[in-house]
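3.2 Worked example (two chains)
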Amino acid sequence: MMKVKTWISLAGLFLGLVACSTPPDTLGKLDLKKWRQDRGGCKNERSALVADLRGEQKQLIGKFADDIGKILGRPDIHQLGERNQKFYVYFLEKGPQCDDITKKSEAKKIILKFNAIGLLSEITYQSRPL
C-alpha cells in the first residue's frame, strides 16, 4: 500500500511541475517573449520577428494547439472550422483590431491551421483578408 501512495505522490508532483512549466523565451532566433508581449501586433514588434518565425516554423509544425499557445501565447483570434479544424490568428502589425478585436482588420497576420486531432498542419502569412 505504501508503494502505491508513493507512486501516486510522485506522479502528482511530476504532473504539477509539467503543468506549471514556464514557456520558453526563445525558439532558435525567434524572441518569443517579445512576440507574446505584442498582443494583437499593436506595438508593431511582431512584424520585425517574421523572418525569425519563418526560420523556425519547421519546429512548430506538428505540435499540438495547446503547446503552440504556450510557445506563441494566446492567439489574437481563435476560430473553429469544418471537420474539427481550428485556426489561430496572430496579427503582425497595428490595425483596427487594436481598438476592437471584433472589427474586421486588413493588418498583416499569420494563420495557424490545426487538423482534427489538434496538430499544427499549416502556417499561412496574409497581408489581406480572404
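3.2.1 Second chain
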Amino acid sequence: MPLAAFRGVGKTFPNGVTALDGLDFSVEPGEFLSLLGPSGCGKSTALRLLADLLEPTAGRIDRHESAVRNIGFVFQEPTLLPWATVAANVSLPLRLRPAPGVDSRHRVDEALALVGLDEFRHAYPRELSGGMKMRVSIARALVTRPQLLLMDEPFAALDEITRFKLNDDLLALWRKLDCTVVFVTHSVFESVYLSTRILMFTPRPGRVAAEFKIDAPEPRAGRFRTSPEYGAQCREVSAALAQVMKQDTGEG
C-alpha cells in the first residue's frame, strides 16, 4: 500500500497562480523518490502538500496513517535558531511535540551521530560551515525517527564537493534507517545518483510528464558517478527533460 497517493491534485494560490494541475503519483514504502523539473514547476508545492502544510484546491491526497504521523521535513535553507546550540536546534521538534517515554537526550545524541556532528553539539550555527548547518537541519528532521523524510532541494546552495559528500551520506542514512525519502531537485545528475525512481514534472502548472526507474547496484558509491550506466541514465533523463521543455515552448 502506498504511503501517499496524489489523485488529480491541483493547487491554485490566492494570487491566481496555478502551481499544479491534474497531478497523479504515489509514494511507495522504502523508495528514494526524486521530483525533478525546472524551477517554478510546482515540485516544492507538491512536497508541502504531501507534508500537509498546504491544502489542494482540486483532487485529493490519500495518506497511509503512518505517513501522517511520522514525517520529517528538510527545507532549502537550514533555518536554524542562531541563538541556540546545535543540540538545542536538533531537539526542537521533541520540545514542540513532547511524547511520553521519549528520552530526548538519547534521541538528539543518536541524530547527531547519524550525521557525524556528535562533537559539535555545543557549537552555535555561526561557527558552522554551510554543509554542517545542513547536517544539523537533517539531524533535526531525523530526531523524531520519521518513516517519511521530505527534502526540498537541501543541497542546492552548496559547493559541488560538499554536495557530493552529502549525497553519499544521505544514501547511507536512507539505507540505515530504512525510511522513505521524497527529494526535490532540479539537477538531473543528482536525481539519477540518489534515486530509485524519478518523476519528471512539466513546467507550471506541474504534472508528471515522465517516470524513470533507476537500476543501479547497491550500495552506490563514488564509482557509480563515473560508470557508463550512470552516464547513460543521465543522458536519457536529460533528453526527456529537454523534450518536455521544448513542448512547453511550442517547439518541435
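3.3 Remarks
Residues 85 and 123 are 5 Å apart (CA to CA).
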